[in-house]
Design brief:
By secondary structure, the protein is α/β, with parallel strands linked by helices. The chain has a single domain, classed as SPOUT methyltransferase, trefoil knot domain (Alpha/beta knot, 3-Layer(aba) Sandwich), CATH 3.40.1280.10. It has 5 helices and 7 strands. Helix 1 packs parallel to helix 2 and helix 1 runs parallel beside helix 5. About 30% of the residues are buried.
Amino acid sequence: MHVVLVHPEIAPNTGNIIRLCANVGAHLHVVEPLGFSLDDKLLRRGGLDYHELTNLTVHTDVASMMESLEGSRFFTFGSAYRRRYDEVHFADGDVLVFGAERNGLDQSVVDLVPVDQRLTIPMRPNNRSLNLANAVSVVAYEAWRQSDFAGSSPRTATGLTSETPGAAPFDS
């Protein structure tokens, strides 16, 4: 699975997504420009010490990202689409494309993806959106669940919440 963030703006969101990708085995792609530096302390804090466990590729533009993943199925996400993410059978190598926190994906990017691969996450009426990191988590875990959590640790593993703020090397 590949997760793509097109022009992400908020460092802690991207940091949390780095951590998520390490945990589900997804390759993370970010498309410039970014609203922060990859050296940002808040990015490192959000990702804890998972940066080394995540495959991260930085692309200069959408075209180079699309070219690098040629032959894959691309899915975009937004609140205006009709097809729900849980109606799709995800496969290994699928690409989950998310837009910037404030404006989502530019229509020119959306137009590159077939209509039936433009997905939404259901929400309660009168709500505008989910936090980007939460939206990526919902879909990435569904895609991973459909693969029977391939590559996960044994059920005897511990550590759902093993972070200790202030004790990690990125906290300084």
